[in-house]
Design goal:
mainly alpha, two-stranded antiparallel sheet, 17 helices, Serum Albumin, Chain A, Domain 1, disordered N terminus, about 375 residues, three-stranded antiparallel sheet, 2 domains
């Protein structure tokens, strides 16, 4: 594999076709590999709990739950809702997600799958109505790109099963952030400026992120009064307030809009019935092993667990921590192996991994040691 003989030719060709992968997913996989391959045995711990997240305001929301006697589920819920406010470009209740939960009392690990679902009226040719793919820039910002959101249902389920706080308590920090405002950081400001004009497409979005036609800049103070009212409504009436009633009608009406370049083919398919029937799924985690460690990851429809376990399975037979053999952290030999393992795993990801509630995913075959060694 060090000289690339393990790259199956058909996978090489297919990987070139599917190389437009999510940068965040690539970063996540690379980060997991580095942690698994080179982490030391030292353990950092705190008796009061630790919250690690990408924005300090979201971290503070999680820490607030812990300080009030809440547990990790309560903190995770508060973090999610706060991120909806301070990192709207990346996370929010308008999307979906996965939650991997370790239950310390029982030693059991479970997965909450709250990813978006396709509307019931969705068709296989939705993005290629005439046999040719619609232009990505237009299709990805039209109504047909909108899935039935699941994040709120997933967080609500986790809180009811394993949390100690009510939904309203975990929403409180986010409501305050949205209503009182926060300072726009560099990352949000850069995303608005470099978003290819996406925040200009809908008047509601433009009014928030480009007031008066001017993109928000780092240091600006952002107040989201409508979002605060929405979150307050959910806090008062529960998650159903998002999936039924006025909020649900507003969601359906918004995704029925289309891009002028696409006409009717770009009109969203989601209905009020789609929103009302959405329920998250509790699944068993994907379990793998690496150099004596047991790893739990997301099963399909997430591709993360299988993809990372494939990479680790390909790399396990190499002495990656031995500088005497040319390996070690950051060495060209080690980096080459990691890159090739990622190439192969991402190729399989593109071809084989989907939602196995609807299509077969050959989990055992993809993780078969004999397959990974070839």
């Amino acid at each position: 594999m060090a000289h690339c003989p393990a790259i199956r030719p058909w996978l090489q060709a297919r990987f070139c076709h599917y190389s437009a992968l999510s940068p965040m997913f690539v970063f996540h996989c690379a980060r997991v590999l580095v942690l698994c391959l080179f982490s030391a045995s030292a353990l950092a711990a705190s008796p009061d709990g630790v919250v690690a997240v990408s924005h300090p305001a979201a971290a503070a929301a999680g820490a607030r739950m812990l300080a009030q006697g809440g547990n990790a589920i309560d903190a995770a819920a508060a973090v999610q809702f706060a991120l909806n406010v301070v990192e709207p470009q990346s996370s929010g209740i308008g999307g979906g997600g996965f939650m991997l939960v370790y239950l310390a009392k029982t030693g059991k690990t479970v997965v909450v799958d709250s990813r978006e679902r396709a509307p019931a009226n969705a068709r296989a040719d939705l993005f290629a109505p005439d046999g040719l793919p619609l232009p990505f820039a237009q299709a990805s910002t039209s109504g047909i790109a909108v899935g039935v959101p699941g994040t709120l249902r997933g967080v609500d389920l986790a809180l009811r099963r394993w949390g100690t706080k009510p939904l309203s308590a975990t929403l409180a920090p986010a409501i305050e952030l949205a209503g009182h405002g926060f300072r726009v950081n560099r990352f949000l400001a850069e995303d608005i400026v470099n978003d290819g004009g996406r925040t200009q497409l809908q008047p509601e979005t433009a009014a928030i992120f480009r007031p008066g036609g001017v993109p928000l800049a780092e240091g600006d103070w952002l107040v989201q009064a409508d979002l605060a009212r929405t979150l307050k409504r959910i806090a008062t009436r529960g998650a159903d307030a998002f999936y039924r009633g006025p909020l649900a009608r507003a969601i359906v009406q918004a995704q029925h809009r289309t891009r002028s370049e696409l006409g009717e083919v770009g009109r969203g398919q989601m209905t009020l019935a789609d929103l009302a029937r959405y329920r998250p799924t509790v699944r068993e985690p994907l379990i793998g092993h690496y150099r004596g460690w047991t790893l739990a990851g997301m099963p399909p429809p997430s591709s993360g667990g299988l993809t990372v376990l494939q990479m680790l399975g390909m790399l396990e037979r190499f002495p990656l921590g031995d500088p005497a053999q040319g390996y070690g952290f950051g060495s060209p030999k080690t980096l080459h192996l990691m890159i090739e393992a990622m190439r192969l795993a991402f190729a399989d990801r593109a071809v084989w991994i989907g939602d196995d509630d609807f299509v077969p995913v050959p989990r055992k075959g993809l993780l078969n040691p004999a397959y990974l060694a070839t």
